[in-house]
Design brief:
heterodimer; A: Transcription Regulator spoIIAA; 24% strand; B: Beta-Lactamase; Beta-Lactamase; Phosphatase 2c, domain 1; 3 domains; six-stranded antiparallel sheet; five-stranded antiparallel sheet; 11 helices; rod-shaped
Amino acid sequence: MTEALKLTIDRRDAFAVIHTEGYINNQGGEEIARAAYELLDSGYRRLLLDLTGTKIINSIGISILIEIIEKMLEVDGKLAFCSLTPTIEKTFHIMGLAQYASIYPDQTIAVVELAP
Amino acid sequence: MKDATLQDELLALARQEPQGRQLVERLLGLLDRATGTHGAALYVKTELGYRRELATAGSTDEDSLAEVLADGPGQLTFDGGLVRWHGTTGSSGVEAPALLLALVTAARELVLRGQLKRQDFEAKSRGVQLEALYDVGLAIASTLDFERLCEEILMRAVALSDARRGALYLKQAGRLELHRVFGGDAQARLDPEDEETQELLAGVPRPTCCVLPGALYVLGVSIAVDGLPKGLLVIGDKESRQGVGPFSPADRRTLDLLANQAAIALENADLHRQALEKERLEREIELASEIQRQILPKGTPVIPGYELAGWNRPAKHIGGDYYDIFPFVDGSSWGLVLGDVSGKGVPAALLVSTLHSALRLLLDRFELGADLFVRLNEHILASSASNKFITLLAARLDPATGELHYLNAGHNPGIVIGAGGGVEQMGPGGLPLGLMPGVSFRTEQATIAPGDLLCLYSDGITEAVGPDDVEFGFDRLTRLLAEGREEPLADLMRRIDREVSAHAAGLPQGDDQTVLLLRRSARWPAAQSG
């Protein structure tokens, strides 16, 4: 069972992919935020969060993801998600994340959509 | 800052129309400059006091305020927060109130928006909780994968309560065994009578406890079906942005609801798992039954001058009775064997296989006699459980003379029905095989005269019980044999089967039933024999 969050960052030309593996909670959310803000500072305005390795997220993790979305919107950036479990996807819809961030079934489709 | 300058800055700000947080930041900066740039900060009221939300670059204000003094120079409280600054306003003080009014209005709007956002978030979180409970409910009907269900239940419990870790225990043999763990270690086994476990089962929140080592706050809830505890769901360390804290009564209610749903889902999945296991066992037993059928003779061999019939019906799918008819390597004599392993079902059937293989292998190297039985006894002793034994009657028939040399290891003596209807029992023999080491055996002899009928049988025939608790018995069997001594043996065999079944009157068959019949033809010319 996945537990402590591990991140892998893939910097591409037009966007960056943050791949997560593990629990997105307070600690995991903060790590994602730190990575996202570093990417923002280094000029990326399009970020893709690939949650292939994440099966569980709590409300603290969600609130941090909302903050990241808000921050991205402030700078006219875009945050997208892909490869969500049905439970997490349903949670994102209920919590309103899907209103401000695109959700793609997998990374292949997301990459096509995010490419300029 | 002069009043005129302040007025200009305020007008400039109004023209730019900043909103929300940005507006408050700009006004706070303006206040700071208007009061000598000693720092200014906005605090938001929380359950624990006031938390610093925004501050100017030079501010030395603390992150949070537990106690707040009444308003005075340098502080203005409003509904939901307060503004602090550390200098003094300009000379006239005319424009400063306007600035403070604008700041407090913007700050109040910001705080209200934050509150609305938080309330919206909490309402949506409750929606997520309800959906999760609904989903677990759906899983009752759709998910029968026990392991996946366990993982799902634990993860939902952890996520819904914002816990950092958790564990799922299932009751096995009177103890609670750790089945799934998340986010850290958990004790492998719990004693339901232990005080700490009792508190967790009762839903009493605990500070540190050894169930989740290192956790600061622990909450448990019993997973019960029809009031009987089947498991324990434990979560540890409720998260917030500030760290971890205790679980709330609302968490306890959510966990209770989840555990109720989980109990039904787990019970259904467990029943399904048991059904699958039963199905698998039945398939294996069917296969074992097929293997055992291969051990028994296929059809009846032809021995000139003799008529033969054999029949076996196990009490379960596979049984512990065994019979065999085979020619010896000399080509002139025949072996007749009937054995009965203690017990029934798979263990007995396994021992039947052992007996069959061992007997056939030993007969390749040794004569059927006391030495062979001693070796067989040692082999059975070495390869069976201490409480298992076999009764066995093995005979060597010389068809030419009708001489029968036989050994009996604790089996029902064979019956010989004479041509005139007289009944004789063969010798009782020695102890069963596999009972104890060092047992000796003796070869006995009998003669099957023309017209004689030999019957070897297992006790499942004579001990078949009827509704009146009376056994079928030796006398009924010998009467049937005597009456049918001239009938075709296949017909006699069917009659024995019918009579034994009629005696049982539909009661379940208690033991394996086997009969082996051999009749020497009365008309077979003596000159042709041999």
